[in-house]
UniProtKB/TrEMBL annotation:
Name this polypeptide is given: Putative LysR family transcriptional regulator
GO cellular component, one term: cytosol
CDD domains reported in the protein's UniProt record: PBP2_LTTR_substrate
Pfam families, per database record: LysR_substrate
Example GO biological process: regulation of DNA-templated transcription
UniProt xrefs under SUPFAM superfamilies: Periplasmic binding protein-like II
Residue span, LysR substrate-binding domain: 2-195
InterPro entries on file: HTH-type_LysR_regulators (IPR050950), LysR_subst-bd (IPR005119)
Length: 216
């Protein structure tokens, strides 16, 4: 299966652990990829299913999409950024943006379209999580973050300021995607069911997502 780098880990780990108990002899391969590569792998049959942070409206492949997790997101800038007091998206249109996905596939692209503002032309795409963080901290970019990840980064003493815009920043929701039940194996469908259970059931077992993690 494939997962997006934005996938919340606590629920995912709980699902994998439970799946391993039910299917101890199944060889599970987990690939972390950007959404465009995840879609490519699903189309070509290299993946049975995936957890994707992209909206279904950006694709027309006829896959089965189930939204699992609502993940609030924010725009942030480094400390002392010249636009840290911006209050509208239009003020940021000419700034340099830092995204992990291409603008035409990202929720930021949808945000500009929703508010009828021209898409920014200065965009850095960075698929590396560590380098994304370093660029956000040390350059004058506007970066897009899941709130839970930014909170964790801030707890490590890394200084990023959340922008307080009048426009609503789109959430970075996570969806389970597969082709259809006729084309998915029994074990893959069982894993899909475990994922749906742990992400959508408030009584499902959870782990402390960031326990033991460090960032260097």
């Amino acid at each position: 299966m494939g997962i997006s780098p934005a996938t919340p880990g606590a629920q995912f780990i709980a699902a994998v652990k439970q799946f391993g108990k039910r299917y101890p002899n199944v060889h599970l391969q987990i690939h972390e990829m950007r959404p465009s590569k995840l879609m490519e792998g699903l189309r070509e049959g290299q993946l049975d299913l995936m957890l994707c942070s992209q909206p279904a409206s950006r694709y027309s492949d006829g896959f089965h999409w189930t939204e699992l997790y609502t993940q609030p997101a924010v725009l942030a800038v480094r400390k002392d950024h010249p636009c840290r007091k911006a209050r509208s998206l239009s003020e940021l249109q000419n700034q340099q943006w830092l995204l992990q996905d291409s603008l035409d596939k990202s929720r930021i692209g949808l945000m500009f379209e929703q508010y009828q503002i021209a898409l920014p032309e200065r965009v850095i795409e960075c698929s590396s999580g560590v380098m994304f963080c370093e660029l956000a901290l040390n350059t004058d970019v506007i970066s897009y973050w899941p709130s839970r990840v930014l909170t964790y980064v801030q707890k490590l003493g890394r200084e990023l300021e959340v922008l307080n815009l009048q426009e609503e920043v789109p959430p970075l929701n996570i969806s389970l995607v597969y082709r259809n039940q006729e084309q998915i194996t029994r074990s893959a469908m069982a894993l899909a069911e475990e994922l749906m259970y742990v992400y959508r059931n408030p009584n499902a077992p959870k782990l402390n997502e960031f326990e033991g993690l460090t960032m260097r």
